[in-house]
Amino acid sequence: MCLILHGMAGYEAEHTARMFFSGLQRADTVPQEGDCLLISSKPYAQMVFLRQNGEARWTACAASPEQEPADREYALCRLLYHFLQEKTGIRPPWGMMTGVRPVRIIHDMRAAGATEEEIRARFVDHFECTPERFKTALRIAEVQRPILADARPMDYSLYAGIPFCPSRCSYCSFVSRTVGDKATRALVQPYVDCLCRELKAMREIADECGLHLKTLYIGGGTPTSLSAAQLRQLMGCLAETFDLSRLSEYTVEAGRPDCTDAEKLQALKEYGATRISINPQTFSDEVLKNIGRRHSAQDILDCFAQARAAGHDNINMDLIAGLPGDTVEGFRKSLETAISLEPENITVHTLTLKRASNLVVEHRPDAYDDVARMLAHCDLLEKAGYRPYYLYRQKGTLQNLENVGWCKPGYEGLYNIYIMEEVHTILSAGAGGSTKLVQPGVRHARIERIFNYKYPTEYIGQFDTVLARKKGVKEFYDAFAGTNPETTYQQ
Ligand code: SF4
Predict the structure, then answer these.
(1) What Enzyme Commission number(s) appear in the record (predicted)?
(2) 319 shares its domain with 441
(3) CA 300–ligand 1 middle distance (angstroms)
(4) pLDDT in the model for residue 100
(5) What total number of domains does the chain contain?
(6) Residue 97 is assigned to a structural domain of this protein
């Protein structure tokens, strides 16, 4: 179906439309024939026209040129939302909300002095979010409240990225390279050398800015696609360069069992990781095959047992609802298996169809079972003593559902909360790294980004530029010299 935006109709209207129709293609004019959706916003009127399967319908409402742009946009989205809801029978769980961080709305409204009733009205009346989703967001806000209250503006988190994987998952849109081929294998060692240099440079910059390291995260890709010796080199460099004794959390994504063995798990423990991820995504061998994984469910169970044997006492497991070929019952079994292992965290993602992934390239709309019914089985987590502690949404997620991190009380993943709520700076090292600088002491006042090169070859080849760009961190903090940001985060 093609989508035509007319007049002042823009970004929010487009995203509202995409909640109801996947694969909308933008066009400039209404075609003579074929399915199309026209959204128009003019000074005195707003209008939506839909032609689908040869049948055409439209709806309109009056507008005023004096209306504030935000009110005009909301009125158009509401018109569109109700029209498409009636037409398709779809009831998006988050209603008209298009933002990726619903919980943050609660924190922001509370910080601005809103009452609980005003917050409820914002979610349920204004956005038409379901009461169940509002309740989940509210619960998560409560869990996060003391953690955010404890965050200090001059804290920062550090991310080190390993953009290599043993094979490519079909749903992946990340720039990760497969370490199977010789050319990529030859890149890994120079990459780790550069990464260590960048991390050392970051420590110096952090010191110059007066920043304190709060959490450390080695992610990917798949960090354990490095050899045991390379992992030791990287983690040894981190241990030498930073004072890990003051860290509140040190996460390493052990990710996939096809490259994680007892020796690497032992090294992670030895060098100070306090939290690791072993990510099954599913415990169905057939679905693992569908997504391009070259390991079995049994391999995941073995890897988990090895991690426990190595002393890892804070393990996260990622599952994905909506994988191709999975069923509601199959997802439930995966969830039950994960719960039976008693990891401290279970993160339930909803499959997101991203343009750069093989799944989208080979898109088969009939491959996905009812994801909402899969997620309904998350009550099993509740019964097993887990509680939701962070949540985010992504564009292109099946049925506009969400990703939720669940944990046993006291095992909240701090880095996940900090990155979602943007309470402090995240310095990011490695290819594809995006450093996010957060103005200290003032909620969401100023955020700036510094990007590293995306691909490992560029990152290694233009490493001097990578280092030079980091000067921006000092310049950012210099702008606030003389202010007194060392206060607690305002709730
Ligand atoms: S393990 Fe993660 S980063 Fe690597 S290919 Fe799979 S989804 Fe992509």
Answers:
(1) 1.3.98.3
(2) yes
(3) 15
(4) 86
(5) 3
(6) no
290 lines ligand 1 (CB under 6 A): no
Whichever domain contains 37, its CATH number is 3.30.160
CA of 190 to the centre of ligand 1 (A): 21
220 pocket-lining for ligand 1 (C-beta < 6 Å): yes
Least confident of 77-86, 188-197, 205-214, 476-485: 476-485
Shared domain for 305 and 392, answered yes or no, is yes
280/334 same-domain check? yes
Please check whether residues 281 and 340 belong to one and the same domain. yes
| pLDDT, tens digit (0-9, with 9 covering 90-100), for 18-53 | 888 877 889 998 888 899 999 999 988 999 999 998
Same domain, 135 and 153: no
Both 398 and 445 in a single domain?
yes
pLDDT, tens digit, 9 for 90 and up, residues 451-467: 999 999 999 999 999 99
318 and 417 fall within a common domain: yes
Ligand 1 pocket, residue 172 CB under 6 Å: yes
Residue whose CA lies nearest to ligand 1 atom number 5: 168
Confidence of residue 175 (pLDDT cuts 50, 70, 90): confident
Residue nearest ligand 1's atom 6 by CA: 169
Predicted local confidence at residue 362, as pLDDT? 55
Domain hosting residue 113, numbered range: 102-147
Q: Are residues 187 and 142 in the same domain?
A: no
255 lines ligand 1 (CB under 6 A): yes
